[in-house]
Specification:
The complex is a heterodimer of chains A (555) and B (198).
Chain A (H helix, E strand, L loop, with lengths): L1 H11 L3 H9 L4 H29 L10 H35 L8 H24 L30 H29 L12 H33 L12 H35 L6 H14 L15 H29 L8 H24 L1 H7 L3 H31 L5 H27 L16 H31 L37 H6 L10
Helix pairs in contact in A: 3-4, 3-5, 3-15, 4-5, 4-6, 4-8, 5-6, 6-7, 7-8, 7-9, 8-10, 8-11, 8-13, 9-10, 10-11, 11-13, 11-14, 13-14, 14-15
Chain B lengths: L19 H26 L10 H4 L4 H22 L3 H31 L9 H32 L8 H28 L2
Classes of the chains: A mainly alpha (555), B mainly alpha (198).
Chain lengths: 555, 198
């Protein structure tokens, strides 16, 4: 214990410039994890401001809060930011921080690649936002990207996108894509090659298993996007014709390449959210996870099936009936393993001694909201239904249900659950509960009612609308909900900052949990474990605390 | 610290996991394969869709010598790794140098082909869809060959400086995975560009 205290305080001393320098040159997985998370939180605020600007513009018909051009930039930047520079880095951050600790390793497999990947992603985010200053080029053609986050051809061709706005978009995604692939390689190598003695694949915490699948999916899904961005750059810079219909190129090919990335990406984001739920729900139900092998199998199954569903984003472009049927069937099929997971989480809670602490509240919110998101997903997976509602606010409501209602709620659960490990202090429980309830109310106000204007025919991405179509009241309610969500976020940020200095001391294991990270001190020392642990079951800390009734007797 | 109770008994079998370098390289190869797959799909999709000439059958010649060089470099690097594993450093150096030379010959061949296509046949990236897809796919492969040559060259320099010994056979082996991958990709590129597409 004494040696750790010395090592820790040695790191924290010295002038501020030296300490900042230590953070910039660090290769420690915990520090890089924190950098990822802080970086993503910064972009979460920026992306949230962009969303708020759009909702204010749509609060009443014929509003003039922003111009149509600015509105286009807002939805493009909001989508790109939230997917690539909020959820992906935050998931990588948690994976970075938690995976080595949970598998009993001292660092990731390739620490320097880890730092390189983070800074590539940081450069990508910087490039994307530098477009506000540099995107004009010599053309006076508008600054930030305004082609939508999937950037369909021919909007990105030189004719329709002069200036450099689309180039900044392409470069940002290309650079951060290389960073993502590097991190994914690192996660896979860490999990397969760095596990502590006794931790066979069947004894790994589910979080490690799910991040392994996530890493594999990033490798197979991010690479097509990278390839497509290279092609787009060849078109824009070297005069190529990949997506140039006037020279025989195909705009549809871009759609396919984008969605081959785009749909697995949803699972890249949601599988780590599943991972959080799979670690947190058992601890607050005081029961081991129900159906561990089935959970692993379902995740791997999702990984495979989700690679073959991409064209359900493209039903409205007019594919032939074989393609429509194939992608409708695979889309329905991916709901099956996801449903299995939901039943397993309910099975874990069933008969448990549930503690309704803030992390558990967020997990329960995640469970219900993700279920509804999945159900509207099945609706949209039916091709004829999608012909009617594709490109409407119903779709916007559906995927925000997935990303906010599902992924973001699970993320907040992870924040409340692991913050004590990362900082050594507990987050304030009353503020946390207030945050949960406000976010829940705001979320449902915004995104429940958003389905309705979609059903009434309101297309997405319009900057204003005519009165008298029955859309006004729903848009008004949705915008009010946005403000409530914004207040909830402010509470969360306040809690993060306040508790860092004033929160009660957490100790090593505040939740009486069972995975290895809780055996290290809070925050863990740079080397994580004084000696590499040996495990005999899926819940090594349970074995340690209950030597009379260890898990390994039953597994 | 609390890790003391985790201490293992000496009776248990030794704990061996796959080498992280090998896992990392295989993951990288998987990612690269996905990138190449997209480029190959685009190439096949656009075969015969060019609106103007020159067409592949008019200008492409089958690069037989080049292909033989690149594919045989897979064998030489395999022999090099085997030699180093048996601590035969100078034999390793010979095979390694041969691999490097074959790679350079391949790259020079590609450069000659491009020079001919650009200056004699007037085919560039912007000429037609064939030009766009051909230079992208072959260029992406040539880029990977170049990266491989940088690695081979670095290994050659260390060999000449006498810093390479049997301890490094694992690293060299992992690097050779990349080189084999580049060769296998060429089999696909060759088939698609010079056989199917012509």
């Amino acid at each position: 214990m004494a040696s750790e205290t010395i090592a820790l305080s040695a790191v924290d001393q010295g002038p501020i410039s030296e300490r900042l320098h230590d953070w910039v040159v660090t290769v420690d997985h915990k520090r890089l994890g924190i950098l990822y998370i802080l970086y993503a939180l910064l972009f979460l605020v920026i992306g949230g401001v962009e969303a708020t600007i759009m909702r204010i513009q749509l609060i009443v018909p014929h509003n003039h809060f922003v111009s149509p051009e600015v509105f286009n930039r807002m939805f493009t930047m909001h989508g790109t930011t939230m997917i690539f520079f909020v959820v992906m880095p935050i998931m990588f951050g948690f994976a970075n921080y938690l995976v080595p600790l949970m598998i009993g390793a001292r660092d990731m497999a390739f620490p320097r690649l880890n730092a390189f990947s983070f800074w590539l992603m940081a450069l990508g985010g910087f490039l994307l936002y530098f477009s506000f200053l540099g995107g004009n080029g010599l053309y006076g053609a508008g600054n930030a990207p305004d082609v939508g986050w999937w950037a369909y051809a021919p909007l990105t061709s030189q004719a329709f996108s002069p200036g450099h706005s689309s180039d900044y978009w392409t470069m940002a995604l290309l650079v951060s894509g290389f960073g993502s692939i590097g991190t994914a390689i690192n996660i896979i190598a860490t999990i397969l090659s760095m596990r502590c003695t006794g931790m066979t694949l069947g004894k790994m915490p589910l979080l490690a298993w799910l991040n392994l699948v996530m890493g594999g999916m990033v490798i197979l899904a991010m690479s097509p996007l990278t390839a497509a961005q290279i092609m787009l750059s060849i078109d824009r810079y070297l005069g190529g014709h990949f997506f140039d219909t006037q020279a025989g190129g195909s705009a549809t090919l871009w759609m396919h390449f984008f969605w081959i990335f785009g749909h697995p990406e949803v699972y890249v984001l949601v599988i780590p959210a599943f991972a959080f739920a799979s670690e947190i729900i058992p601890v607050f139900s005081r029961k081991p996870i129900f159906g561990y092998p089935v959970m692993v199998g379902a995740t791997v199954c999702i990984g495979f099936v989700s690679m073959s569903v991409w064209a359900h984003h493209m039903f409205t472009i007019g594919m032939n009936s074989y393609a429509n049927s194939f992608f409708a069937i695979t889309t329905m099929a991916v709901g099956v393993p996801t449903g299995i997971k939901i039943f397993n989480w309910i099975g874990t809670m069933w008969g448990g001694k549930i503690q309704f602490k803030t992390p558990m509240l967020f997990c329960i919110g995640f469970l219900f909201q993700f279920l509804i998101a999945g159900l509207t997903g099945i609706m949209l997976g039916a091709a004829p239904f999608d012909w009617q509602l594709g490109g409407s606010y119903f779709v916007v409501a559906h995927f925000h249900y997935v990303i906010v209602g599902g992924i973001l709620f699970a993320l907040f659960a992870a924040f409340y659950y692991w913050y004590p490990k990362i900082t050594g202090r507990m987050l304030n429980e009353s503020l946390g509960k207030l945050h949960f309830w406000l976010l829940l109310i705001g979320f449902h106000l915004t995104f429940d009612v958003m389905h309705i204007p979609g059903l009434l025919g309101m297309p997405r991405r319009i900057y204003t609308y005519e009165p008298g179509r029955g859309w006004e009241v729903w848009n008004l309610i949705a915008t009010i909900g946005t403000f409530i969500q914004a207040i909830a976020m402010l509470l969360f940020v306040t809690n993060l900052i306040f508790s860092y200095w004033k929160g009660p001391e957490a100790g090593n294991d505040p939740w009486d949990a069972w995975t290895l990270e809780w055996s290290a001190s809070s925050p863990p020392p740079p080397y994580n474990f004084a000696s590499i642990p040996t495990v005999a079951s899926r819940r090594p800390l349970w074995d340690l605390k209950h030597p009379e009734d260890p898990d390994w007797k039953y597994e | 610290m609390s890790s003391a109770p985790f201490a293992r008994s000496s009776l248990e079998p030794e704990w061996i996991l796959p080498s992280r370098a090998r896992v990392g390289m295989i993951s990288l190869i998987a990612a690269e394969s996905a990138i190449f797959t997209i480029f190959v799909v685009a190439y096949i999709f656009y075969i015969g869709k060019s609106l103007s000439g020159p067409m592949p059958k008019d200008v492409l010649e089958i690069p037989v010598f080049n292909t033989i060089c690149l594919l045989s470099s897979s064998l030489t690097i395999h022999l090099a790794v085997g030699a180093l594993r048996n601590a035969k450093v100078s034999l390793f150096g010979v095979w390694w140098f041969l691999t490097l030379t074959l790679g350079v010959i391949f790259l020079a061949g590609t450069a000659r082909e491009w020079h001919r296509l650009i200056f004699d046949e007037g085919l560039t990236v912007g000429t037609n869809l064939f030009g766009t897809t051909y230079y992208s796919l072959v260029g992406l492969h040539a880029f990977h060959v170049s990266v491989g040559l940088l690695g081979l060259g670095t290994g050659m320099v260390f060999t000449l400086l006498g810093k390479v010994n049997a301890e490094h056979s694992e690293r060299v082996d992992v690097f050779s995975l990349y080189w084999h991958f580049v060769d296998v990709v060429w089999v696909f590129v060759f088939t698609v560009v010079y056989v199917i597409g012509r």
